[in-house]
C-alpha cells in the first residue's frame, strides 16, 4: 500500500509540474513501456548509427558530374543533408510519433548519381525527386498506400522484417571490410583475400563483440557505449598507424578506413551553406529527354521510394513491438505522408529523397518506442550541420558493428512464420534472401509479392491472394524489366 501511495504521489507531482506529463501524454511514452531517459538514449544511438550519411551523401552526390558537366558542392551538400534529415525526422516524430528516423536514402542517391544525371542535369534530377515525392504524398493521403500495406499477407510482412535484418547485417559486414568483393571467382570473400588483414576491420570485430556482450548482459546504453569505445580505440590506432581510406581517389589504402580516418579534426565547427535550397528544375527533364523517358525515371523512383520505405517501416514497427496482429502500426497514414514529404524536401534542397532509415533500428534496440526519440535524432542532425567535421570522426566500422547486432535481433522474428506450407515458405525465403543479395529492400518485396501470387494461383489458392497484391505484382514486373523498356523508349 505504501508503494502504491508513493507512486500515486509521484504521479500527482509529475502532473502538477506540467511539462513532463504533457510530453508523456503526447508521445505516449509510459503507455509504450518507455521513459524520457530511454527515448533520449535511443534517439542518440539512432543518430550515431546514421551519422555517416552526413558525410557519405555528399560524397555520393558530389562525386558525379551531370550530363552538362555540372556538379554539386560538397560543403553545401553536407549542410542540406543535415538540414533536411533533421527537419523531416522531427516532423515525423511529432506527426507519426514513432521512433523512426529519416535521411537521404542510399539507394536513391546512388541511382541519381550513377544513372539519372547521365541523362539530365542535377537540377532536373532533383525536380524528378520532387515529383516522386508528391506522388508518394498523394498515395499516402488517399489511403492507397495503407490499402496496399493491408493487402500484404502476415507471413510476408514478417519475412520483410527478417530480410531487412539480414540486409542491414550484410551492410554492416561490407561497410566494415569484413566482407569484400573478389577480383574474380566468388562474388564476396572474408576480409582481404580470405583473411582479416586490416586494423579497421579488427576495430569492427572488437566493437561487434563488445556490443554483443553489453546487449547480452542487458547493460543500458550498450550499443551507444560500444560505438563510443570503438571510436576512441579507432582514434588511438589512427594516431599511431596513420592509415588512409579505401576510397581515397588520389591514394587509396586497401587496408585503410572505409569512409574517413578517425582523427581529431582541425576544425570542429563550420557554418552551413544553404545555397542548394531551391536549386531544382521541376519539369526540365521532360524537355531534355522526352515525356516517356522521364516518366520511366519517375516510375523507378516511386517504386523504389514506396516499397523501400514500406518495408523498412514494417521491420522497424515490429522491432519496436508496435505492430498489431493485423500488421498495422499507430498513425500509419501520417507516417506515409511525412515520408513522402521527405522526398519533396530532399529534392527541393538537392539532398536527394529522404526516407525512413533502417539504421534507426539501433535506436529501437536501445529502447526507443516513441516519436520523442525521433525528435532527439532530428535535433542532432540539425546540430550536425555545424559540427560536420566532428561527426566525421566516428568511423563507419563502429556503426557497422551496431548494424550487425540489430540485424541479429530482427532475424529472430522468423519464429512467427509457419514454414510447413511450401506456398508460404518459398516466397518468404525469396523475400528474405533477395534483399541482402541484391542490396535492395524493394527487390526483396517485389520477388516475394510475385512469387506469393503465382504460387498460390498455380496451386489452386488464387482466391487467397488480395487483388491489390496482383496489381502491385504486375507493377513489380514492369519495375524489374525497366531497363529494357527504357532502352526501347530511348531508342
TrEMBL record:
Top-level division of the source organism's lineage: Bacteria
Protein name: NCS2 family permease
Keyword Transport set for record: yes
InterPro entries per the UniProt record, alphabetical: Azg-like (IPR045018), NCS2 (IPR006043)
Membrane topology: Multi-pass membrane protein
Subcellular location per the Swiss-Prot or TrEMBL entry: Endomembrane system
Protein's organism: Brevibacterium koreense
Similarity section: Belongs to the nucleobase:cation symporter-2 (NCS2) (TC 2.A.40) family. Azg-like subfamily.
Keywords, in A-Z order: Membrane, Transmembrane, Transmembrane helix, Transport
Transmembrane residue ranges: 42-62, 74-95, 100-117, 129-148, 155-174, 194-216, 223-241, 289-311, 332-351, 371-391, 398-417, 437-455, 467-489
Cellular compartments per GO CC: endomembrane system; plasma membrane
A Pfam cross-reference name: Xan_ur_permease
A GO term, aspect molecular function: purine nucleobase transmembrane transporter activity
Amino acid at each position: 500500500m505504501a508503494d502504491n501511495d508513493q507512486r500515486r504521489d509521484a504521479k500527482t507531482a509529475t502532473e502538477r509540474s506540467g511539462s513532463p506529463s504533457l510530453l508523456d501524454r503526447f508521445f505516449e511514452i509510459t503507455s509504450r513501456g518507455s521513459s524520457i531517459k530511454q527515448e533520449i538514449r535511443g534517439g542518440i544511438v539512432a543518430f550515431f548509427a546514421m551519422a555517416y550519411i552526413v558525410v557519405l551523401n555528399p560524397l555520393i552526390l558530389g562525386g558525379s558530374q551531370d550530363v552538362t558537366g555540372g556538379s554539386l558542392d560538397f560543403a553545401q551538400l553536407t549542410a542540406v543533408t543535415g538540414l533536411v534529415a533533421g527537419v523531416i525526422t522531427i516532423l515525423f516524430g511529432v506527426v507519426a510519433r514513432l521512433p523512426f528516423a529519416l535521411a537521404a536514402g542510399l539507394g536513391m542517391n546512388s541511382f541519381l548519381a550513377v544513372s539519372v544525371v547521365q541523362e539530365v542535369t542535377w537540377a532536373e534530377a532533383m525536380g524528378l525527386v520532387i515529383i516522386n515525392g508528391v506522388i508518394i504524398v498523394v498515395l499516402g493521403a488517399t489511403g492507397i498506400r495503407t490499402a496496399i500495406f493491408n493487402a500484404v499477407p502476415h507471413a510476408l510482412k514478417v519475412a520483410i522484417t527478417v530480410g531487412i535484418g539480414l540486409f542491414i547485417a550484410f551492410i554492416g559486414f561490407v561497410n566494415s571490410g569484413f566482407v569484400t568483393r573478389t577480383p574474380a571467382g566468388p562474388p564476396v570473400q572474408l576480409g582481404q583475400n580470405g583473411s582479416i588483414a586490416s586494423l579497421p576491420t579488427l576495430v569492427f570485430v572488437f566493437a561487434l563483440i563488445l556490443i554483443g556482450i553489453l546487449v547480452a548482459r542487458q547493460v543500458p546504453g550498450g550499443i551507444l557505449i560500444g560505438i563510443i569505445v570503438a571510436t576512441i580505440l579507432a582514434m588511438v590506432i589512427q594516431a599511431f598507424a596513420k592509415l588512409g581510406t579505401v576510397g581515397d581517389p588520389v591514394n587509396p589504402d586497401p587496408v585503410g578506413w572505409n569512409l574517413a580516418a578517425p582523427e581529431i579534426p582541425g576544425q570542429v565547427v563550420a557554418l552551413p551553406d544553404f545555397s542548394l535550397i531551391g536549386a531544382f528544375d521541376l519539369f526540365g527533364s521532360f524537355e531534355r529527354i522526352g515525356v516517356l523517358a522521364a516518366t520511366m525515371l519517375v516510375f523507378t523512383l516511386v517504386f523504389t521510394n514506396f516499397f523501400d520505405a514500406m518495408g523498412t517501416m514494417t521491420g522497424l514497427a515490429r522491432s519496436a513491438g508496435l505492430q498489431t496482429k493485423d500488421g498495422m502500426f499507430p498513425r500509419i497514414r501520417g507516417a506515409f505522408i511525412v515520408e513522402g514529404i521527405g522526398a519533396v524536401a530532399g529534392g527541393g534542397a538537392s539532398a536527394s529523397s529522404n526516407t525512413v532509415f533502417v539504421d534507426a533500428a539501433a535506436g529501437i534496440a536501445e529502447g526507443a518506442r516513441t516519436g520523442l526519440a525521433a525528435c532527439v535524432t532530428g535535433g542532432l542532425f540539425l546540430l550536425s550541420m555545424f559540427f560536420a567535421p566532428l561527426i566525421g570522426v566516428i568511423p563507419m566500422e563502429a556503426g557497422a558493428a551496431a548494424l550487425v547486432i540489430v540485424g541479429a535481433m530482427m532475424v529472430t522474428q522468423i519464429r512467427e512464420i509457419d514454414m510447413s506450407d511450401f506456398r508460404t515458405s518459398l516466397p518468404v525465403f525469396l523475400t528474405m534472401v533477395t534483399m541482402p543479395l541484391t542490396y535492395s529492400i524493394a527487390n526483396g518485396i517485389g520477388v516475394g509479392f510475385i512469387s506469393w501470387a503465382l504460387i498460390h494461383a498455380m496451386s489452386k489458392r488464387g482466391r487467397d491472394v488480395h487483388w491489390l497484391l496482383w496489381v502491385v505484382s504486375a507493377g513489380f514486373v514492369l519495375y524489374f524489366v525497366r531497363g529494357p523498356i527504357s532502352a526501347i523508349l530511348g531508342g
